[in-house]
Specification:
mainly beta; SH3 type barrels; five-stranded antiparallel β-sheet; three-stranded antiparallel β-sheet; 0% helix
């Protein structure tokens, strides 16, 4: 798949009499670039977007989401499976534009880590 593809796909049925019927269901497809080398980054490990929370808690506000194909720099991690990320590659849930600041992603979601993530500092209690 080429880099930087995003959007919905649907099927089309072409009939001999010239009719064209499109499927009602569509699937979203995203592709991105390769993760940067030498930096610990995090990405969605599924076809779904990852919620980015304001605090390392499921009760916290999910203010952004990271779509598959985008990578976020990991700044720190907790012993209980939360990753503090640079949210600038995520999408703000309110505006639909690039998010700002930092946020937390839970390891209980399907995530993939790339780069030297063992060097990322631990934070928290």
């Amino acid at each position: 798949m080429p880099e930087d593809v995003g959007g919905s796909l649907r099927g089309a049925a072409h009939f001999p009499d010239g009719r064209l019927i499109y499927s009602h269901w569509s699937g979203d497809v995203y592709s991105g670039e390769e993760p940067p080398e030498g930096v610990c980054t995090l990405a969605s490990g599924t076809i779904g977007a990852l919620d980015v929370f304001a605090e390392p808690s499921m009760e916290s506000e999910a203010f952004a989401y990271l779509v598959p194909g985008n990578y976020a720099d990991v700044l720190a991690r907790t012993v209980d499976g939360w990753y503090w990320i640079d949210a600038s590659t995520a999408t703000d849930t309110t505006t639909g534009k690039a998010a700002t600041g930092w946020g937390w992603v839970a390891a209980e979601y399907s995530i993939e880590l790339f780069g030297p993530c063992g060097e990322v500092p631990l934070t928290g209690p």
